[in-house]
Specification:
Blueprint (H helix, E strand, L loop, with lengths): L1 H15 L16 H10 L7 H7 L8 H15 L2 H10 L12 H37 L3 H13 L5 H19 L8 H22 L3 H5 L3 H23 L24 H21 L7 E6 L2 E6 L2
Antiparallel strand pairs: 1-2
Helix pairs in contact: 1-9, 2-4, 5-6, 6-8, 9-12, 11-12
């Protein structure tokens, strides 16, 4: 139960962009406070943030301060790395002051490098957008001046947007230089495992409600397993529709009149197919909740934040 609730916390973090919110009061009694502390530390929240959880759990089972502190220290170690500081800058987020004073300088430098890389990427995207818009404008311009300009650039072997393209090329060089000097990307197995558990749990819940292999898709298993449930459920529902609309044989028509409106068969097959579909859904749900966690996706980071890359 504790693992499930922590997974639910992580799922909520994924959906809210890891917003700074205290624990849901309903989860206070079942929470694994060491894991809650680890999540807070990993997100750069100060140790004093446990007071938010304490207030949220007021009147309920109290927070375990020893377990929370132990988890927070583990999360802090993962947050206070050069690689993570660079990534946080690349996300466009501030770097929180929860790290040892003697490491602040190198961490803030790494954060600044990440922020600079983000700016260069944004500037390059904006410049490429301007180039595309200018080319589109010139393609639609039927004026004599534009035709003369195009003829000139054609003879000169240049482009009407040459100046902007040169700026874009310089931006790419600057961006490549910043990327070359970036530290290795973060690798935090515990954090990634937590995210995988969150996606596996979320996928199981979605599969329970929606079915049709949707849960397997969230778990990153659609290509190998999920498609079977999509085809199977579609076939089951198709069978139910066909059976429910089937007509009685000729000798069961009212008064034996072959021209009379056929009656519906009083058959048990619709119920049989419905029970088969429900059994299929239960089997699918058991497969989702019984998944061993070896999801076929990778948890990583991008300029937009946490990213899950599926292998379809």
């Amino acid at each position: 139960m504790k693992t499930l609730n922590v997974c639910l916390l992580l799922s909520a973090a994924l959906l809210t962009g890891c917003a700074t919110t205290a624990i849901d009061p309903q989860l206070c009694g079942a929470a694994d406070w060491e894991k809650v502390g680890w999540v807070d530390g990993r997100e750069g929240r100060p140790l004093s943030y446990k007071q938010e959880h304490t207030r949220s759990c007021k009147g309920r089972e109290p927070l375990d301060p020893i377990g929370y502190d132990r988890g927070w220290e583990k999360g802090q170690l993962e947050y206070c790395t050069v690689a993570n500081a660079h990534e946080v800058g690349l996300w466009g987020r501030p770097f929180n002051s929860i790290c040892p004073k003697e490491r602040e300088k190198e961490l803030l430098e790494a954060h600044s490098q990440g922020a600079a890389l983000l700016r260069k990427r944004s500037e390059l995207q904006e410049m490429e957008k301007k180039i595309a818009e200018e080319k589109e404008r010139r393609d639609k311009d039927e004026s004599v001046v534009n035709h003369i300009s195009q003829a000139y650039h054609l003879l000169a072997g240049t482009s009407p947007t040459q100046g902007m393209e040169n700026q874009a090329a310089q931006m790419r060089e600057d961006m490549n230089r910043l990327e070359a000097g970036a530290p290795p990307r973060i690798s935090t197995p515990a954090f990634e495992q937590g995210m995988r558990q969150a996606y596996d749990t979320f996928g199981a819940v979605v599969g329970l409600v929606a079915g049709f292999g949707s849960g397997h898709a969230i778990q990153g298993r659609y290509k190998t397993d999920g498609w079977k449930w999509t085809v199977g459920e579609a076939a089951m529902i198709g069978s139910m529709i066909v059976v429910s609309r089937s007509e009685c044989p000729v000798n069961e028509r009212p008064s034996g009149d072959i021209n009379a409106e056929p009656a519906r068969c009083a058959s048990s097959w619709p119920m049989v197919t419905m029970l088969a579909w429900l059994g299929f859904r239960v089997w699918q749900t058991v497969d989702l909740f019984g998944h061993d966690g070896s999801s076929r996706y990778a948890v990583g980071v991008s300029p937009q934040g946490l990213q899950v890359v599926y292998n379809f």
